[in-house]
Automatic annotation (TrEMBL):
It comes from Haliaeetus albicilla (White-tailed sea-eagle). It comes from the Eukaryota. Pfam families: NID. This is NMI protein. Signal peptide: none annotated. Residues 2-73 form the NID domain. One of its GO terms (cellular component) is cytoplasm. The gene is Nmi_0.
Length: 91
């Protein structure tokens, strides 16, 4: 439907339109594991901003149901398609 939005003391009339989100992308990662860090290689090239890729990597390795744990840092290098995931605690 129609909505009115207040933007900097001006009213803008907007209309909501449904849209379809793209399906998620599945990809395979190659990992080398140490006590506190995981080296990830062959990260696929996706047409998303680098910070989104860092967020995706962090979420993937944080998931407890898949053996993950709290992530301290994600160092992602788009050019080499590698990342280093550092966890808060070794394990």
């Amino acid at each position: 439907g129609k909505h009115a939005v207040n933007l900097d003391s001006k009213i803008a009339d907007v209309r909501v339109k449904p849209f379809t989100l793209e399906m998620g992308v599945k990809f395979e990662l190659h990992v080398t594991i140490s006590g506190k860090k995981i080296n990830v290689s062959e990260v696929p090239e996706l047409s998303i901003p680098e910070d989104w890729m860092r967020d995706k990597l962090e979420l993937n390795f944080y998931k407890s149901e898949e053996g993950g744990r709290e992530v301290e840092n994600v160092n992602y290098d788009k050019q080499s398609r590698t990342a280093v995931i550092t966890f808060l605690r070794p394990g």
